[in-house]
Amino acid sequence: MSRNDAQPESIAVHVATVQHLFDSLDPAPFRERDLDPKVEQYIVGWARELPPRRPLALVVHLDQAGPGDEALLQRAVREYFQQRAVAERRALRHLLHIGRVSLAIGLVVLAVAMVLGDLLSVLVGRYAYGEIIAHSLLIGGWVALWRPLEIFLYEWWPIRADAKLYDRLSAMPVRVVDSPGHEHAPAPVA
Known about the structure:
Blueprint: E1 9-15, H1 37-49, E2 56-62, H2 69-123, H3 128-143, H4 146-171, E3 174-178
Parallel strand pairs: 1-2, 2-3
């Protein structure tokens, strides 16, 4: 079974109306609004727990479903998560830029610390504190590389993973289920 043939993993949300899915403080026109932060957190949280290679589907249980709700939600969810993926990639590019600048600065500081440490060690060579100063400068030079190493070893990949997750979420189909009374629907999130 190929990845595209796999049955999608469903994320179910229950709200009274479509308006409850969107951020009420967002001044944008209704169909361009951001998702409500609690709804987004719920959807993203569930998506993180599901198998990463399986396609996703969003099932929205509405107490009052309208005829155009499914198309509206499909477009709104797709656009919202596409924007989030773009924002994450922008954040990743910015972080990697900071990493490159920090690396250049750190390497210069390390080189200066090594040269200065050697120079001071020679100038004050017969005293023990000359070696202590040289080692202290060397340690300071290595500390200057801490931030770029942290960025290039650890910080970039969670941002990249979030961008990929948002890509998956933007591609998921949205299905609206009219469930007045919500007898068997999942607990409401908003």
